[in-house]
Amino acid sequence: MPNLKKSIRTIWIMLVILTVFAYLLGYLELINNSLVAILLITTFIKGELVIDYFMGLKTVKLKYRLIPLIWLGTVISLIAVAYYLPIASV
Amino acid sequence: MPNIKSIKEPYPPGDFAIWIIIYVELVTFGLLFLGYAFSRRSNIEMFNESQLLLSQTSGFVNTLILITSSYFVVRAVQAIAEMRQESIEASNHTASKWLLYAILCGMAFLVIKFSEFYYIFGEGITLSTNKFFMFYLMLTMFHFMHVMLGSVILFNIYKKTKISGYTPNDYRGFETGAAYWHMVDLLWIVIFPLVYIIR
Hints:
Order of helices and strands of chain A: HHH
Radius of gyration of chain A: 16 Å
Oligomer: heterodimer
Mean pLDDT of chain B: 95
Number of helices of chain B: 6
Largest sheet of chain A: none
Distance between the termini of chain A: 61 Å
Largest sheet of chain B: none
Radius of gyration of chain B: 19 Å
CATH topology of the domain at 61-199 in chain B: Four Helix Bundle (Hemerythrin (Met), subunit A)
Shape of chain A: flat
Low-confidence stretches of chain A: none
CATH architecture of the domain at 61-199 in chain B: Up-down Bundle
Structural class of chain B: mainly alpha
Number of strands of chain A: 0
């Protein structure tokens, strides 16, 4: 159990670091086309950490874990499509 | 000899019904996220200008608060899952301590979000001001209600831990409430970059 507590603390620290990274991108107005992709990837990683370690789905049958992971991947991918797809000029 | 690490639990933690609710909630919020992202394409300048009225710092602080509250809930679940017949009182006590921290985080989130709404409404902004604020208010108010409900659920679990109501054979309700709270956290993890950061 001590190892489990340690790993959960590590997950929490990773989530905090990725959140600080996202905030700094916005606060320092660094956000641009390529950094949006990185921001979305870090958002996926954060979501995956919550699904696997906080919700505890890493240790259950794959189908229960796949549902939220596919949801997250689809939502993040389509947000990327909405951001990057060229807007047709009228 | 089978590898113990590869043995998976047949069902997710908590009542199975909560997972149906969680999956439905994820789809509902997912549609709102995509509605926001694709509506933005029709008027990017207006979305970017409207976004300037939001405080990225309050969104950031609220993200840290929810992530930390989720961590506290995991620690509470761990305390209960480690429980033995002879340590029921001690385990419930430890879990109640972590839950109290999580509930306080939930309260802090609600206070910060309420102050944000107070400012936004004070500026005369409503659901019909423009598409950005329509989505912003729908997403964040809907999420706000989930945080309120989650806090009530955590408080009820907290009350039960105070009377050592969970035992090694009966803590499914505890895991159910925890799963709901993590969903609330997961949703905000997407809302924060989508609404507050990406421009």
